[in-house]
Design a protein that fits this description.
The structure holds 2 protein chains of 2 kinds. Chain A is α/β, with parallel strands linked by helices. In chain A, strand 9 and strand 10 form a beta hairpin. Chain A is elongated and about 75 Å long. Classes of the chains: A alpha/beta, B mainly alpha.
Chain lengths: 309, 252
């Protein structure tokens, strides 16, 4: 099956007076991908999302979402997208169920569909019990979950979530991440965050934005490879012999260290070492109980990208 | 449109605006015949110097009903502005407009629904106040010609609807409710002063509607009312169109 680009941003500029909020933002997102949109505060994440959702117009550049040219006709993309603002606001005098019914009405769902969809969504975000209470009395976490429910009312093709977890406590965060994990099976999810651990857990790809420019777009696997530290840790079985003479003659070898039963090897060429190091050890009759390449976490990658001007 | 209308109705219901506005108009409407009736009594009780002679001619029912419109024009208009001024501004500031307008709801529909519901509320409140006032005038002062009142009301109501349209525009232009209300109030004052520019403007501008309505209460035939009526209709349309254009260019 041909994989289609669900979101396409080409050379997008956005100015606020003399401030250049976005400068030539370019990226593509394939169908059914979960994208973590990362960047320090003020990088332009919210601005980008608003442009993608058709709420703001770019000064220059092309924006396409679900096959619709958003910059030219924002109203045409509305049926296909769901959007959770950074600080979702509701009519506080409505109940959660009423708000969802109102949203369903905007999408012209029939009465029957509305009842079904609203019930489903309330259940899914865990608001069934609070469904008939006024939103004004909801906690922050409940509002966030209602925000997600209203974004899903039309079964969107593309879902934009602006900082969905940043304002939540650990429990709320866990719940919302779980929801996003479920949603990414059905839709393309594009969510911004500055909590890198969250992105690490649920997204397939990340885009890093800094000062209005895309610094990096890569899958998590690519990141692992590209930013892997050239360090291997091996737990050596106590009864086993260890000879390092042939290791030290390898062209990719740089240095090693032994602490207790742990052998740490620093290499020059990660790719070659990855395949040759374990083989070498086994050939020499060394038994090891753990072998691990030190993998970078997203936070380290992020800092490396962002600080590497 | 249906969802938006339902939402606006529910909002005026839950926020008790549906009670507030009619109460104010009824209060203003009943106040006139009652105070006209009691005026001699009040003056008698006032501690005037001995020998003061005040002669008050008995008020004509038409004058009393006309004075109700005078009340509506001041406090009534102010209340309409206070009730409407937040309708767009508040939703923009809270961010709820962003979440709603990202859905397939035209900005025109968004504004029109508000205009319809608030106009309906205003018209209902005014009719209630005016008929209550006229009824009391009939009891306390003297016979009232209901047909004249009905025609006068028809001529006067578009003026209040115009106030709603003005306030919806200012509420769209500004993010602050206070700025929206203040500007709306200034515009209404300006509009009510315009007829005083000269004979031609008296025939054209919306303030003329109050004058026309007043003369209709007196069963006088004056200038054709359709000129200011058509002009008010045009203004309402233009104001809503301006609000729509403004909201279209705003980034939420």
């Amino acid at each position: 099956m041909l994989e289609m680009a669900e979101i396409r941003c080409q050379g997008v500029d956005k100015h606020f007076g003399s401030l250049k909020a976005l400068r030539g933002v370019t990226f593509e997102v394939k169908e059914r991908t979960c994208i973590g949109f990362l960047g320090p505060n003020g990088a332009g994440k919210t601005t980008t999302i608003k442009i993608l959702a058709g709420l703001a117009r770019p000064n220059r550049g092309e924006v396409e979402v679900a096959g619709v040219n958003v910059a030219n006709s924002p109203e045409k993309v509305r049926p296909y997208i769901g959007y959770l603002p950074q600080a979702p606001a509701f009519y506080n005098w409505m109940s959660g169920a009423e708000y969802l019914e109102f949203c369903a009405g905007l999408f012209k769902l029939s009465r029957k569909e509305t009842a079904k969809r609203v019930g489903e969504l309330l259940e899914r975000v865990g608001l069934t019990e609070a469904a008939h209470r006024r939103i004004g009395g909801y906690s922050g976490g409940m509002k966030q979950r209602l925000g997600i429910a209203q974004a899903l009312i039309n079964k969107p093709q593309v879902l934009f979530l602006d900082e969905p977890v940043s304002a939540l406590d650990p429990i709320g965060r866990h719940e919302v991440l779980q929801l996003i994990r479920e949603m990414k099976r059905e839709t393309t999810v594009f969510f911004s965050t500055h909590v890198l651990n969250d992105a690490d857990q649920i997204c397939d790809e990340v885009i890093i934005l800094q000062q209005g420019e895309v610094k990096l777009q890569a899958t998590l696997e690519e990141l692992q490879e590209r930013y892997a530290a050239p360090v291997f840790e091996i737990d050596i079985d106590q009864d086993s012999s260890l000879s390092l003479s042939s290791l030290q003659t390898q062209p990719w070898y740089q240095s090693h260290r032994i602490t207790g039963s742990v052998l740490t090897v620093v290499v020059k060429d990660v790719k070659t070492a990855k395949s040759e190091l374990p083989r070498l050890l086994v050939e020499q009759g060394t038994v090891f109980t753990r072998y691990q390449m030190q993998s970078p976490n997203l936070e380290q990658v992020f800092l490396q990208v962002v600080n590497n001007q | 449109m249906k969802a938006m209308l339902k939402k606006e109705f529910l909002e005026i219901l839950r926020s008790y605006r549906w009670l507030l506005l009619p109460i104010v108009f009824v209060f203003l409407g009943l106040g006139q015949p009652i105070s006209f009736k009691l005026m001699p009594q009040i003056l008698k009780n006032a501690s005037l110097p001995a020998g003061t002679v005040i002669q008050i001619p008995p008020p004509a029912p038409a004058d009393v009903v006309s004075s109700i419109l005078g009340q509506f024009n001041q406090l009534g208009v102010l209340m309409v502005i206070l009730v409407v001024m937040g309708t767009v501004a508040q939703e923009k500031v809270s961010g709820v407009a962003e979440g709603v307008l990202v859905k397939p709801l035209g900005k025109g529909t968004f504004l029109t629904a508000k205009f319809i519901v608030y106009s309906f509320l205003t018209v209902a409140a005014c009719l209630l106040g005016l008929s209550g006032g006229a009824y009391y005038t009939d009891i306390l002062i003297g016979h009232v010609d209901w047909q004249q009142i009905a025609i006068g009301a028809l001529v006067y109501l578009p003026y209040l609807v115009l106030v709603v349209a003005i306030t919806i525009l200012t509420s769209t232009l500004f993010s602050s409710q206070v700025a929206a209300g203040g500007t709306a109030l200034l515009s209404v004052v300006a509009i009510s002063l315009l007829p005083k520019l000269g004979a031609w403007s008296n025939k054209l501008f919306p303030g003329a509607l109050t004058t026309q309505a007043t003369s209709l209460f007196h069963a006088e035939t004056l200038d054709p009312v359709w000129v200011p009526l058509a002009f008010v209709g045009f203004l309402i349309f233009a104001l809503l169109a301006a609000a729509w254009l403004s909201l279209r260019t705003q980034e939420l």
